Amino acid sequence: MGVCYGTCFGTAGVALKLNREQKSQIVDAYRTHNTDTGSPEVQIAILSERISYLTEHFKVHAKDHHSRRGLLKMVGKRRRLLDYLKSKDPNRYRTVIERLGIRK
Predict the structure, then answer these.
(1) Helices (H) and strands (E) in the chain, counts
(2) In the chain, what are the domain boundaries?
């Protein structure tokens, strides 16, 4: 595919990474105060969006094992952030999982 300097698209037209506008929309939706860009809620939301992109990517590219490793690392990082948030503030944890729809 070559080098990607913006939004990269796979052969199925699925964006492989978030562009600046998409990321800022997620930050605006999940931030806890005006200058918040790194709270657990924001990080979890960004990771969830990237995970959903990669999940769509694997529907077409089932043998892309290098990207699958990245997906597993992202899922693990999101799990650790969720565990941290659950131990520090269970109410915020419940709010995030309800908004993202990532738990039953």
Answers:
(1) 4, 0
(2) 20-100
